[in-house]
Design a protein that fits this description.
By secondary structure, this protein is of the alpha+beta class.
Length: 609
């Protein structure tokens, strides 16, 4: 199994650990300390050695930050985790905070006392975040205090060792572009901006630039590494030597000079000598590295990571690989859903469903000679009320049976060398109430609206997000997460800068892959989410139109549960979309399915409405 079902944290330890942290405040000269979920690489997914937030509070979600003051302890989370955080932290010690509406810098501006001194680990916070915190504290007559030795790490006596995952080469047959060409293009961009070099701090960008992959972080195949690329085209990679052997060593030694991670600040100082300009992405780079540049008189020039947009805009080889990976994943999903439909309600548990799905993915990977490398995130397998916990992670303690008369939500994904997948299906276990069918259909209407959207150049995620919500809004409902996120090419399942969300201002560009996943959640009762991946198409004229338009091409192929669709709530266009989608699902997947029972299930599941 690529997924563990062990309970990895407990609310019971929170009170003592918070008091242990507070006991160091006087020596550190601070009134509060910030503990983010991010690691030294500002990543969403982090190794076990960087799970500081979980260790301190018990909260295991992928986004959050704790603010510990002398009198309060607040865990800020977004809408995906409001139910989860209430279950995972000690309510007498921690207060939930709003990571979107009132994140730490806004909370400090509103509530911090005059002269408040906030301690942070400068390796765990980006320059952009530090600027917001500093501004809020300055307005209060307070200050930001950089702490050299993270006090959480000093308290964490059994902290796991840092990861040492082996690096492998992502062949050009999957990457679609030589690493040397990527380095050259980035160097040209650096020279154009009059800078000496650029610091690449995002491990996914490092992996994309150098055409390598790693295994330092669960389910995200990038190595924890940084790089410098100079205007002259020199590339330096900062990575533990033990991670690079054999083919990867030969590949990288032809592209760059490798250094130990501890040498990064020294190399930055050399690059910045004489007041040279160094490009830094303030959103992804630790403030500690920006300070290292400035400490020798270098000039930090804030600029977007030069690999971020090229990495998001998939080339033809990457798109073809993703399409192939999704067909393979669709076969695995069909085998799983066929198996699930054949089980008696009450005989399958949330964990056994996860295990069955992973086995289906592994089996298909073997038969198609494209092995399952990993899952792309811990599978969300929620029955009944657990489906309402948007990022529910089943454990041996929470596992329960899929009972008759309820909905089952399964959100999962896979990592194949040719693509990353992410799919959610909500299915009926037996006969479910009509109200749940109604909400399923309203969510489906939103998913179809995004699927069929056409839009002009310059359209952003915030422009399309309402399309996924309007049917729910009309029914007096909504969902507290974005409609879609970017997806990498055998990289992170969550990739920016593209999103479909209220606050997303990145314009869509052809080749970007996004998820399309509206939902509805009723705490304590049920949850619904339907998710396909799509990619942005090239501009094209519409017959009789005035402007060329982009649209979305679907990548995910797997039946929707027809038993949950209320046909009377769908328009003629929506009904036609469902029927056309199911016809394509059958056409693409049926030739790859040899078992008569699975083939029969697929044929029934894709019948026209």
């Amino acid at each position: 199994m690529f997924q563990s079902f062990d309970t990895t944290s407990s609310p019971a330890f929170g009170p003592a650990r918070v008091e242990g942290l507070r006991s160091r405040f006087d020596d550190l000269g601070i009134d509060g300390f910030l503990v983010p979920r991010a690691d030294e690489f500002q990543g969403e997914y982090v190794p076990a050695s960087a799970e500081r937030l979980s260790w301190l509070t018990g909260f295991t979600g992928s986004a959050g930050v704790a603010l510990i003051t002398r009198g309060q302890a607040i865990v800020f989370v977004d809408g995906r985790y409001t139910t989860q955080v209430a279950q995972q932290v000690d309510a007498a010690t921690f207060t939930p905070g709003d990571l979107v509406g009132e994140p730490p810098h806004k909370w400090l501006a509103a509530h911090a006392p005059t002269g408040f001194r906030l301690g942070i680990d400068p390796w765990l916070h980006s320059g952009a975040e530090v600027a917001r915190l500093a501004a809020a504290l300055t307005a209060k007559g307070g200050s930001l205090v950089f702490i050299d030795a993270n006090p959480v790490d000093l308290l964490w006596s059994d902290r796991p060792a840092p990861p040492m995952g082996a690096v492998v080469v992502q062949q050009e047959s999957h990457a679609g572009k030589p690493a040397a060409e990527k380095i050259r293009e980035i160097a040209e961009g650096v020279a154009t901006k009059g800078a000496a070099g650029v610091l690449i701090s995002d491990p996914s960008s490092v992996a994309w630039i150098f055409n390598i992959r790693g295994s330092d972080v669960p389910h995200t195949p990038h190595p924890l590494a940084r790089a410098i690329i100079t205007a002259a085209g020199r590339a330096e990679l900062f990575i533990e030597a033990g991670k690079v052997t054999g083919e990867a060593q030969h590949h990288l030694d032809a592209l760059c000079t490798r250094f130990a991670p501890a040498e990064l600040t020294t190399r930055l100082a050399t690059l910045a000598e004489g007041g040279a300009k160094v490009l830094v992405d303030a959103d992804t780079t630790s403030i500690a590295l920006s300070k290292a540049i400035e400490s020798v008189g270098g000039v930090v020039v804030e600029a977007m990571d030069p690999a971020r947009l090229p990495r998001a805009v998939k080339n033809a080889v990457e798109l073809r690989g993703s399409a192939d990976a999704h067909v393979q994943d669709g076969v695995a999903m069909v085998r799983f859903l066929s198996w699930l439909d054949g089980q008696q309600p009450g005989t399958v548990s949330e964990i056994s469903a996860v295990k069955a799905l992973e086995a289906c993915r592994a089996r298909v990977g073997e038969s198609l000679q494209n092995p399952l490398k990993d899952i792309s995130f811990d599978t969300i397998s929620g029955a009944g009320e657990h489906g309402a916990i948007m990022h529910y992670r089943v454990t041996t303690e929470t596992d329960r049976m899929l009972l008759p008369g309820e909905l089952f939500l399964i959100d999962s994904g896979a990592q194949y060398v040719n693509g990353t997948t992410d799919i959610t299906r909500t299915v009926a276990i037996g006969s479910v109430p009509e109200e749940q069918k109604r909400f399923f259909t309203l969510v489906l209407k939103g998913m179809i609206a995004i699927s069929v959207a056409r839009f002009p150049k310059g359209t952003r995620g915030c422009d399309l997000d309402p399309l996924a919500r309007i049917a729910l809004w009309k029914a007096g409902a909504d969902f507290a997460h974005g409609t879609g996120h970017g997806v990498g090419s055998y990289l992170s399942v969550h990739e920016g800068p593209q999103r479909i969300a209220r606050l997303s201002t990145q314009e869509f560009l052809p080749g970007m892959i996004l998820s399309n996943e509206p939902g509805y959640y009723r705490p304590g009762s049920f949850g619904i989410r339907i998710e396909n991946l799509v990619y942005v198409t090239e501009l094209a004229m519409i017959e009789g139109g005035d402007l060329p338009m982009m649209g979305f091409e679907t990548l995910t192929w797997c039946p929707l549960d027809r038993r949950l669709i209320v046909k009377d709530l769908l328009t003629a266009e929506e009904l036609a979309w469902v029927d056309a989608y199911h016809a394509t699902v059958f056409k693409k997947l049926s030739p790859l399915i040899s078992e008569p029972d699975v083939q029969g299930w697929l044929e029934r599941a894709t019948q026209p409405l």
